[in-house]
UniProtKB/TrEMBL annotation:
It is a single-pass type I membrane protein. The gene is BACE2. The chain crosses the membrane at residues 507-532. Keywords: Aspartyl protease, Disulfide bond, Glycoprotein, Hydrolase, Membrane, Protease, Signal, Transmembrane, Transmembrane helix, Zymogen. The lineage of its organism: Eukaryota, Metazoa, Chordata, Craniata, Vertebrata. Disulfide bonds join 273-473, 332-497, 384-433. GO terms for biological process: amyloid-beta metabolic process; glucose homeostasis; melanosome organization; membrane protein ectodomain proteolysis; negative regulation of amyloid precursor protein biosynthetic process; protein processing. This is Beta-secretase 2.
Length: 558
């Protein structure tokens, strides 16, 4: 999770990245048959709507949604302090899909697994501004905590001491099954950090499993900008790979432990349903986190898969972006600079600076709004309309092309303005105000909640791929706010858009410590040599001896 709080956006919405924290794929195929669903009986799901950012469960319309007015004048626009001009321009029609053979093969049903996927529907609560959380019972006797779901980090940690922004914490001394491992761990995110004691204890997931599991857990005793005002969770569940786990990848992650002990497939999926709903509102939305597989009721149509490039974050390959059907025409390596990841713990769609600038220019040019303040694009200001209006009809669609499992093809996920022009609560009595759900990033393209809320997302670790399918809850007034289509040819795109993969974080730390140790040893030797007296007498200069003026060491250190 790349956790970051929206800067200057109003109302204290939690992080733009909720905490900064491989696969060759087969394409989509027919949805799995109902009998694939887990076999063990559990209590029915408690209707709580949404997933790491989403409301889940069947095809029900979104609450409180409104259809944008047709052709409403843009003059009622808002309240932006400063204005910057941008002339509207017609958008060319979207590219037509290339007719290529479609593969309908689907992996065989997973074997065994004491999990009830239907019971996991609607097992998340939260909102898009402050994250989505799962209820867990930890220790003996069980202590109930709300745990933030984050696919951008790998540690499982809970508050281990009181904090002014949380209402409960895990008291390890009260648990007879808690065992300390005798060391601390510190985890730093894009914004914020925490330090905790590492131990292990039993955990029960009330919805979907009928047994407890022994897992590694960090109890947080010190933190900075991690627990924020208004949050409703008191722990974090990192679902990325062990390569990101702190202090090292040898610490088994929560999901690896669950797969081994519950005998479930190495797959989980999420539905996040906050499309068009207020950010950081007073209530909560719902969602679904399905641990161990795919729940057919949470998606419709085909599942499209893209390979995971490396198993640390869920790193994928972006081929191009389109605004209103028009390509940005950037080198595809710009989209993958450093990395492109899918992260449920990031609130917004985050883009490398060059890509962000191109997107803002294109959105401003193709929108029906003649002037806009720079503060809206940077996140320091909100745009407000009268209560009788909604702004979504003024803005273009945004499409992201992902490489298919067949590398000669791609597919496209498209978000409508309802997903990236996001309503904010409490901004004014006579106005409804909105924020721009896209922000610049210094180190990655991050597909966060802004995009994920439009889709059912499958993290198929077993087959090293991430899948996207249409989500029934990504609708407003019965109309979908996201689209998925393909296949498209990749003949006009480079065969590899991912730059040489950087060393992942654990290796970087090892290399850094090794280099520092070598430098310290060399420095110590030099100091000792300088302090030692020279007992030797001056000898005649031998013309065959290399002196310090011409030595290799001398030249290397010039």
């Amino acid at each position: 999770m790349s956790l970051v709080t929206s800067v200057g956006r109003s109302s204290g919405a939690l992080s733009e990245e909720i905490r900064d924290s491989s696969f060759p794929g087969k394409r989509r195929g027919p949805r799995p048959a109902r009998e694939w669903v887990g076999r063990a009986g559990c209590a029915p799901a408690d209707p709580a709507l949404r997933c790491d950012l989403g409301r889940g469960g069947g095809a029900r319309p979104l609450r409180g949604s409104r259809r944008p007015p047709e052709g409403a004048a843009a003059t009622n626009l808002l309240k932006l302090a400063a204005r910057a001009g941008a002339a509207p321009a017609p958008a060319p029609p979207p590219a037509s899909p290339v007719l290529l053979p479609r593969r309908s093969s689907q992996p065989p049903p997973p074997a065994g697994g004491a999990a009830n996927f239907l019971a996991m529907v609607d097992n998340l609560q939260g909102d898009s501004g402050r994250g989505y959380y799962l209820e867990m019972l930890i220790g003996t006797p069980p202590q109930k905590l709300k745990i933030l779901v984050d696919t951008g980090s790998s540690n499982f940690a809970v508050a281990g001491a009181p904090h002014s922004y949380i209402d409960s914490y895990f008291d390890a001394e009260r648990s007879s099954t808690y065992r300390s491992k005798g060391f601390d761990v510190t985890v730093k995110y894009t914004q914020g950090s925490w330090t905790g004691f590492v131990g292990e204890d039993v955990v029960t997931i009330p919805k979907g499993f009928n047994s407890s599991f022994l897992v590694n857990i960090a109890t947080i005793f010190e933190s900075e900008n991690f627990f924020l005002p208004g949050i409703k969770w008191n722990g974090i569940l990192g679902l990325a790979y062990a390569a990101l786990a702190k202090p090292s990848s040898s610490l088994e992650t929560f999901f690896d432990s669950l797969v081994a002990q519950a005998k479930i497939p190495n797959v989980f999926s999420m539905q996040m349903c906050g499309a068009g709903l207020p950010v950081a509102g007073s209530g909560t939305n719902g969602g679904s986190l399905v641990l161990g597989g795919i729940e057919p009721s949470l998606y419709k149509g085909d599942i499209w898969y893209t390979p995971i490039k490396e198993e640390w974050y869920y790193q994928i390959e972006i081929l191009k972006l389109e605004i209103g059907g028009q390509s940005l025409n950037l080198d595809c390596r710009e989209y993958n600079a450093d990395k492109a990841i899918v992260d449920s713990g990031t609130t917004l769609l985050r883009l490398p600076q060059k890509v962000f600038n191109a997107v803002v220019e294109a959105v401003a040019r193709t929108s029906l709004i003649p002037e806009f303040s720079d503060g809206f694009w940077t996140g320091s200001q909100l745009a407000c309309w009268t209560n009788s209006e909604t702004p979504w009809s003024y803005f273009p669609k945004i499409s992201i092309y992902l490489r298919d499992e067949n590398s000669s093809r791609s597919f496209r996920v498209t978000i409508l303005p309802q997903l990236y022009i996001q309503p904010m609560m409490g901004a004014g009595l006579n106005y409804e105000c909105y924020r721009f759900g896209i922000s610049p990033s210094t180190n990655a393209l991050v597909i966060g909640a802004t995009v994920m809320e439009g889709f059912y997302v499958i993290f198929d670790r077993a087959r090293k791929r991430v899948g996207f399918a249409a989500s029934p809850c990504a609708e407003m007034a019965g109309a979908p706010v996201s689209e998925i289509s393909g296949p498209f040819s990749t003949d006009d795109i480079a065969s590899n858009c991912v730059p040489a993969l950087p060393l992942n974080e654990p290796i970087l730390w090892i290399v850094s410590y090794a280099l520092m140790s070598v430098c310290a040893a060399i420095l110590l030797i030099l100091i000792v040599l300088l302090l030692l007296p020279c007992p030797c007498r001056q000898l005649p200069r031998d013309p065959e001896v290399v002196n310090d003026e011409s030595s290799l060491v001398r030249h290397r250190w010039k």
